[in-house]
Automatic annotation (TrEMBL):
<feature type="domain" description="LysR substrate-binding">
    <location>
        <begin position="3"/>
        <end position="192"/>
    </location>
</feature>
<comment type="similarity">
    <text>Belongs to the LysR transcriptional regulatory family.</text>
</comment>
<dbReference type="InterPro" id="IPR005119">
    <property type="entry name" value="LysR_subst-bd"/>
</dbReference>
<dbReference type="Pfam" id="PF03466">
    <property type="entry name" value="LysR_substrate"/>
</dbReference>
<dbReference type="InterPro" id="IPR058163">
    <property type="entry name" value="LysR-type_TF_proteobact-type"/>
</dbReference>
<protein>
    <recommendedName>
        <fullName>LysR substrate-binding domain-containing protein</fullName>
    </recommendedName>
</protein>
Length: 208
């Protein structure tokens, strides 16, 4: 069984805090690596990290999901550290099957740019990509809620500080505004307060 990620720990902490506040509420929390159909699977609320929401769903924005380009010190011992995003073409880039499998998007001084990347490992799970990076397999683009604690300890090195990877939004989504239960409404209000616009997990990367 793998250890919980920072994102999972944050979400679990929020859920346990909510049920402590409302002890009669029961929550069935499922952590999945796929997008669920809220109606068909009878899911009241989902947390999604994306800038492209399903127009058939109702969304409430919670906070920001930033990313960082990083690699393990063991990888950088045998590979020159990239100084520009164009240098990434010289590296083995560990990619996500659904997000950034061939293009990584950045801004620098407010100007957007993209770079084609490739590598020998692509997964549909960010935690697996993280583990590959920790093993020294290549350069990864990881959400800061995963990478920041490891940047803080030196297990990963943040790269390309002059470039900002594309920022995504974290949303709470549900199927319909009709018949929104009091519990769901209370949970939405709680999550908006619980997850501020500037997440605490970004601090380690911002200070690099």
């Amino acid at each position: 069984m793998r250890s919980p990620t920072t994102g999972q720990a944050q979400l679990t902490g929020a859920v346990t805090e909510f049920v402590a506040r409302y002890p009669k509420v029961r929550i069935d929390m499922q952590l999945l690596d796929r997008t669920v159909n809220l109606v068909d699977e009878r899911v009241d609320l989902a947390i999604r990290i994306t800038n492209e929401l399903d127009p058939n769903l109702i969304a409430r924005r919670l906070t920001t999901c930033r990313s960082v380009v990083c690699a393990a010190p063991s990888y950088l011992k045998t590979h020159m550290e990239p100084k520009t995003i164009e240098d990434l073409s010289l590296h083995n880039c560990l990619t996500h099957s659904y997000h950034g499998s061939s293009l990584w998007h950045f801004t620098r001084n407010g100007e957007p740019s993209s770079v084609a990347v490739n590598g020998n490992v692509s997964t549909n799970d960010s935690v697996t990509t993280l583990q590959a990076a920790l093993c020294g397999s290549g350069v990864a683009l990881l959400p800061t809620y995963l990478a920041a604690p490891l940047v803080r300890t030196g297990e990963l090195v943040a790269l390309l500080p002059d470039y900002q990877p594309m920022t995504l939004s974290i949303h709470a989504v549900y199927a319909s505004r009709r018949h929104v239960s009091a519990v769901l409404r209370a949970m939405l209000d709680f999550l908006v307060v619980r997850f501020p616009e500037e997440p605490a997990w970004d601090s380690a990367v911002d200070a690099r």
